[in-house]
């Protein structure tokens, strides 16, 4: 079954796709704020977690998505 992503998840994925490598959490937050989206950190973390849970698929995420998510969660855990 093909899972769809929400508009909010797509906003985040566009930032990640536009980046030349893994997008750091601060970059994602700054990019969202520049687009007028002042979401709380926990909201963005929840959306990233949902994206990770939905997995990797053609047209959904890049192949490095799982690695990017793991780096993001590790960086967030460090503070």
Quick structural overview:
By secondary structure, the protein is mainly alpha-helical.
Secondary-structure topology with pairs:
Blueprint: H1 7-18, H2 25-34, H3 41-54, H4 65-78
Q: Unreliable runs, pLDDT <50, ≥5 residues? A: none
Helix/strand-derived category reads mainly alpha
Give the integer mean of the pLDDT values. Answer: 80
Work out the number of β strands.
0
SSE order, one letter for each helix or strand: HHHH
- As a whole number of angstroms, the C-alpha radius of gyration is 12 Å
Largest sheet: none
Q: What's the total helix number?
A: 4
- Roughly how many Å apart are the termini? 36 Å
Helix content: 55-70%
Q: What gross morphology would you assign? A: globular
- % residues in beta strands: under 5%
Could you explain the architecture of this structure?
The protein has 79 residues and is mainly α. It is 63% helix and 0% strand. The chain is built from four helices and no strands. The chain is globular, with a radius of gyration of 12 Å. The model has no long low-confidence stretch (mean pLDDT 80).
